[in-house]
Amino acid sequence: MFKYKLILGGINPVKFIEMLVDFASKGAKPVEGTFPKLTIPYRVELFIDSEELIDPIPECTIIPIPTKYTREELESLEWEVLKKVCKHIGLTGRDREQLTRKYLQMTT
Prior knowledge:
The chain has helices at 13-25, 71-76, 79-88, 96-107, and strands spanning 2-10, 29-30, 42-50, 60-65. The chain is 38% helix and 24% strand. The chain has 4 helices and 4 strands.
């Protein structure tokens, strides 16, 4: 499961509401202690848990929140799942041991 902080913004009220409704339908919740800005430019901060990686979209800042795995947990993951977990924090590669090592360095 991947966790993200989303900052939605824009000046088009229709597109802003469509993005907000879309992410809310996927389970996004407002960040506690923040309030949506409903005047131009519009802005709201959300948290979302997702099974899939979220692709970048215009007028939305996507900030991945790394989930901390131990070496044993990383070694037990299937290769495709490990690649997704590493890509979530910006790591790519072909060597499982190197990806595991870099992941642990970045998250500890």
